[in-house]
Amino acid sequence: MEILLSPAKINLGLWITEKRPDGYHNIYTYMHKVSLYDRIFVKPSPILKVSSSNPSVPEGKENIVYKAVKEFENYTGLEVNLEIFIEKNIPVGAGLGGGSSNAATILKYINDKFGKPLSEEELIKLGASIGSDIPFFFKEGLVKVTGKGDILEDTDIKYENPVFIIYPNIPSDTKDIYSKVDYKMLTKLEDLAKIDSLIFDVNKLVENIENTLGIIAKEHIGTIREVLNTVEYLGYIGNITGSGSAVYVIGEPGNEVDIICKAKNWKLFKVKFI
Ligand SMILES: C[C@@](CO)(OP(=O)(O)O)[C@H](O)COP(=O)(O)OP(=O)(O)OC[C@H]1O[C@@H](n2ccc(N)nc2=O)[C@H](O)[C@@H]1O
Ligand SMILES: Nc1ncnc2c1ncn2[C@@H]1O[C@H](COP(=O)(O)OP(=O)(O)O)[C@@H](O)[C@H]1O
């Protein structure tokens, strides 16, 4: 039995630069892993089996990890017989990339197991064909992500700050949020150049970012607005990650945050960038 750590991610700003003919959107976002992990238990098995600890996450063929293994088999011609159990600690539908992280983690694991038949570039291409957030997880540190999530630029920056994340216990559906993007919400690439100059100081960055998907999410899920209003009332700068519903703050939470999250039945995660 082997145990793999599958980290979550947060988006530091997210803008939509284009609606693509294939129905996807070109985005402009910075992403960084954080120390909130699913644990993936893997052991040999006569047939591929995938299950998880969270009943809302599909088992078997519908699980993104199952799909990733099958795509790996199709691409390489290799047979991967594993029993995979995912201990879900990353909230589902939170904008924290849990499923994508699980898929990337298992792809990295099986590629290593078979002596790295795929280069990082090929893994990124394979990952992009399964889910838009998967390519990022093959990288480390702060990564600039554009395209539909398949164009990655290393920054050689790795933040060390503490971060706290509040999940309001209401999932946000990525596909649904993207479906609400209209042309008025698009951002011109030339208007984003200034963001690149802010990435050297994460506190400066989070004061100057927006999240177009987050604006849509908080219009449709009032509790996200409540979380944002709460952290801002307490003097913090809150930002929504990805298509939501989780809100993150750079820094450590005061006791009052703990108290409010318990009272509201919101999940509070005290993590750090990794
Ligand atoms: C919004 C982001 C930001 O990092 O993350 P999450 O909030 O999901 O964590 C990602 O773009 C989500 O990536 P991921 O969750 O892998 O999306 P996918 O499964 O590939 O796509 C789900 C659906 O979202 C829409 N989609 C996704 C990515 C993209 N660049 N444009 C899109 O329009 C499409 O309708 C697609 O069918
Ligand atoms: N291994 C998995 N872990 C989490 N979600 C999964 C997994 N496989 C499939 N899914 C589905 O993917 C969707 C998105 O989940 P997730 O990636 O956790 O959220 P987000 O896209 O908001 O970051 C959910 O509807 C979930 O049911």
From TrEMBL:
Positions of ATP binding: P91, V92, G93, A94, G95, L96, G97, G98, G99, S100, S101
Keyword annotations: ATP-binding, Isoprene biosynthesis, Kinase, Nucleotide-binding, Transferase
Catalysed reactions, as listed in the record: 4-CDP-2-C-methyl-D-erythritol + ATP = 4-CDP-2-C-methyl-D-erythritol 2-phosphate + ADP + H(+)
Catalytic-site annotation from UniProt: K9, D133
Pfam family of the protein (one): GHMP_kinases_N
Pathway of action: Isoprenoid biosynthesis; isopentenyl diphosphate biosynthesis via DXP pathway; isopentenyl diphosphate from 1-deoxy-D-xylulose 5-phosphate: step 3/6
Keyword Transmembrane: no
Alphabetical list of NCBIfam families matching this protein: ispE
Protein name in the entry: 4-diphosphocytidyl-2-C-methyl-D-erythritol kinase
Provenance organism: Hydrogenothermus marinus
Gene: ispE
